[in-house]
Amino acid sequence: MRRAQAQLDEARARYRPTVALSARYSRADGGRTQSLPVGDLVNPAYQTLNELLQAQGQPPRFGAIANQEIRFLREREQDTRLSLTQPLYAPAIAAGIDAAAATVAASDAARAAYERSLERDIEVAYLDFLRAGEAVKIVESSRDLLVENLRVNRVLFDNGKITRDQVLRAEAEKLAVEQQLLDAGNRQTLARSYLNFLLNRPLDADVASTAAPEPLAHVREQLATLGAEAVDDDGRLEAQARGARFELRQLQAQSRAAEAAVEAERASYLPTVAFALDAGIQGEDYGFGSGRNFAMASLVLDWRIADFGQRRSRVSAARASRERVEIAQAEVAQQISLEVRQAADRLRTAQASLDTAQARQNAATEAFRIAARKRDAGSIAQVEFIDARSAQTSAELNLNLTHFDVLVSLAQLRAALALENRRG
Question: What is the DSSP string of 114-125?
Fold first, then answer.
């Protein structure tokens, strides 16, 4: 962004005058010379005049003159000048300013698009961290149940109500869940590290956990500006995204920059007019005064009449660049439509799955409660109790996964639609 702004400032500065100081001091030897036969031309006349003077009794007055040889290079020379140049008519400058301004707009849109993407990634990473934390709690609760189950089975074994193999099976199941807990803890650590990475913090920095919102209510709140049935209308969602996404704004600005580049190349067919002023000193030595100081003002016209296709080729290349941006616009618009549809489909699927996951968890919890009472009474096989416990843990993990799937899908849809996060 700063680079594009600096280029815009440079383009605007081309309308302003430039002042330059240049100095040259030269020592020369040899070079071209021009012989002037001054002596050969004048000496015969001088000799005749001297003879006439002598005939009158007067002394000769005219001496012989040698032939002259003029060197085109001075042995010593300096030229020091201050030059001012002011463009008066230069169509390419205006086109360059338009292109630079469009590039600034494109850079600003690219920055905003990156911000939106990063915001989405941070939100999803935080939800993944919360999901991993909830999974740890579920597995810890399952471990506590199995620890209690092992204690009860040992009591039953000591009282002769069950055989030792059931105690061993209970202990093996507890160890399996402890291993599962280690894996869940590792996933939570990785989720925290990735979140800290996105936040540009130390990977081991603590992350505060908050309660996740109720999914369905949160969806309604976040999508309230779109209307109650907006999630089911893909066409409306796609139109919303195409009107708000910064990626398309970036390409639109790039298209304006490409059009300005075409105009800049076309401007090379036109003449440029500039005013120039030079002032300084010249001579064999440095000094000021008559014969040394000089000043010169100029009006400079520069117009390339023909270059045998060079400018035409550059105009064609600029037009091709503009067409490439236009093609990219259509492609990105299609990608945005696809992204919106996929995000909306995932959200609808997650919402539909939430009730089923909740019912499954309720049923598994009740089945485990009954199995636990039977175990306490010694009227259930160990394998049935463990299966009931596994079903309950699996149902709770599935509900936790579905719960956060709704929130993650909402975050992705909101980012696809370029919606602001509604807080409070």
Answer: HHHHHHHHHHHH
Distance CA 276, CA 272 (A): 13
Q: In a 3-state reduction of DSSP, which class is residue 207?
A: coil
Structure tokens at 54: 């002598």
Instruction: List residues bridging with 283 in a β-sheet.
Output: 78
Look at the block and give the residue holding tokens 């070079």: 31
Within the chain, what is the greatest distance between any pair of CA atoms?
Answer: 171
d(CA 380, CA 156): 12
Cβ contact 391:368 at 8 Å: yes
> pLDDT digits over 118-156, tens only?
999 999 999 999 999 999 999 988 888 888 878 877 887
205 CB burial (10 A radius; 0-12, 13-18, 19+)? exposed
> Can you give the pTM of this predicted structure?
0.75
Mark residue 43 as left, alpha or beta (left: phi above 0; alpha: psi -120 to 50; beta: remaining).
alpha
Distance CA 407, CA 388 (A): 29
For residue 345, how many other CB atoms are within 10 A of its CB? Answer: 14
With residue 68 as reference, give the H or E element that holds it: strand 68-71
CB 405 within 8 A of CB 347: no
Kindly write down the DSSP assignment for every residue of 2-63, as one continuous string: HHHHHHHHHHHHTTS-EEEEEEEEEE-----EEEE-HHHHHHHHHHHHHHHHHHTT------
The 3-state DSSP class for residue 369 equals helix
